[in-house]
Amino acid sequence: QVHxxxxxxxxxxxxxxxxxxxxxxxxxxxxxAMGWFRQAPGKEREFVLxxxxxxxxxxxxxxxxxxxxISRDNAKNTVYLQMNSLKPEDTAVYYCxxxxxxxxPSNAASYDYWGQGTQVTVSS
Length: 124
Prior knowledge:
Layout: E1 2-7, E2 10-13, E3 18-26, E4 33-39, E5 46-51, E6 58-60, E7 68-73, E8 78-83, E9 92-99, E10 113-114, E11 118-123
Parallel strand pairs: 2-11
Antiparallel strand pairs: 1-3, 3-8, 4-5, 4-9, 5-6, 7-8, 9-10, 9-11
């Protein structure tokens, strides 16, 4: 079992920045590919970014390219989501997820473990 805890969410003005963290605990000896998803009220959960086990490969949704960056520190079992130039449409609950295989980085079904989510609200 892997336990994921997100942190760093909050309220920010449009154009601002936030950095989310996702700390993993439990069976982290088997390294996992990681992803970030988000879900806005009344909408389906959508893929935001993914990162391979090594951190050398990243995957981005078109809506966040050039604004969001994913990174990881395997020594700390932590994945980060740096969000810049935030827009009101980025408002959502953000979830991190761990995948043993990551066959399809943008497919939520590829992920085995999920965090509880952290709220990000961007005001206009």
